[in-house]
Amino acid sequence: MVELTEVHRTYGRGPTAVHALRGVSLTVARGELVAVRGRSGSGKTTLLNLVGGLDAPDGGRIALDGTDLATLGESENLALRRDRIGFVFQSFALLPVLTAAENVGVPMRMRRLPVAEREERVALLLAMVGLADHARQRPEELSGGQQQRVAIARALANRPALLLADEPTGQLDAETGHAVMELLRAVVRGEGEDSEPVTALVATHDATLLDLADRVVELADGTLKDQSRVAASDPSRAVPRPGGVGSGPTILTEP
Question: Residue 199: which residues within 8 A CB-CB, separation 6 or more?
Fold first, then answer.
């Protein structure tokens, strides 16, 4: 679904230039949930912005579902982001004057879907994220976890093939954040009524959430660390899973 080949991105010039990404190569398979870990400033947000077509690399190639993003014009790029990619942000990015249902419906309004079809899908998505009873509430009337669930529902409005989430639990407490990550995993699996599996790339630095991903990659100073050195046979290197959580795979990471 996603393929990056020797991708570079630098901001500024000369001695003050910031090398956000330095030759990053990464492949994300269809239906895979990949977590990108790394400290602040490691290049996680830059990576997501490039994959989502919000920014362009200085060098290298980025392909989404076989399409080289560099070959797309402005209108084609806009259509790609609207129809094929769903975005989930740390700050939720909900419109404060709109209700939860209206926020979820915004992407479908942009596609000019018929009102009846739009309202039916909004109701389905809010039910899927457990907020059917909060459709008429505005963001200020919802908890942080509820707002993020609305944001996830909105990201799925146009049935995207790819979901990009940038620190989606950064403003949530540990328990609520874990519940949101479990929801994202369920979305990727296509669980729930009328839901369709998607591919997801999630940036996070929260080590307690990484065990819910299919795979974890690590960015450090704009480069992708060598994951082949992880000792899969050493159980002491596994990230502990919180008690009571479902049966996600154990993710092994370097200290």
Answer: 1, 2, 28, 29, 30, 31, 32, 33, 161, 162, 163, 188
CB-based contact 42:219 (threshold 8 Å): yes
Residue holding tokens 């949930």?
33
**Token output for 107:** 């992407």
Helical pair 144-155 and 174-189, crossing angle rounded to 10 deg: 20
Q: Which residue bears the tokens 């989430």?
A: 165
**Residue 66 contacts by C-beta under 8 Å, 6 or more apart in sequence?**
none
Give the Cα separation of 183 and 163 in Å (integer): 13
pLDDT in tens, 101-142: 999 999 999 999 999 999 999 999 999 999 999 999 999 999
203 φ, ψ to 5°? Answer: -90, 130
